[in-house]
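User: Hey, quick favor. My workstation is busy. Could you predict this chain's structure for me?
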Amino acid sequence: MRARLDRGSTLVAAVGAIAYPLALHLAPQVQLLGPIVAVLVIALLVRLMLSSLERPYKLLGAVLAATLVLGAVVAGPARMLRWQPALLNLTLMCACAYSLHRGMPLIERIARARRMPVGSHNRIYLRRLTAVWGGFFAVASALSLLGATVAPDVWLRWNGLGVYAAIVLLIVGERLYRIRYRRRLARDGLLPECDM
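Assistant: No problem, here it is.
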């Protein structure tokens, strides 16, 4: 039953994520924004309940969901959906910052969940990488907040293309840096312990 709910909430979240940009384009003709906000919030809450995340992360997700609902009621779904990317980036920034402050860094958690080997040297690397992603989400959130106040086409260019291009650049840059980092570890004889 739990696995079925998890798959169902994943499907609902995927449909909501695809429907979100379409609804922004069709908003003047079709009143889809309210139902899409509801679908996204329900999917988020179900995923949170089923997840094995620690309580602070679940609380952070619940605050995001409550903010989306409150914003949709107070400001209206159309305006709230323009603020949603900033809220999401802010939530991810908070998750990175919290993981650096308490417990295991977020990127190390992801590496361990994917069963990647984590040695003593790459713990420092993964901690720094978590800080880099936290900084990225802070900048992306600020740009999304600024974008919500400008013309819709400018907002759409950043949130529909710019942020994804920036993510790709960050991932490619990290991969290139990781090659140099591994070479240095190999030179120092540390690679078998902390292969990444």
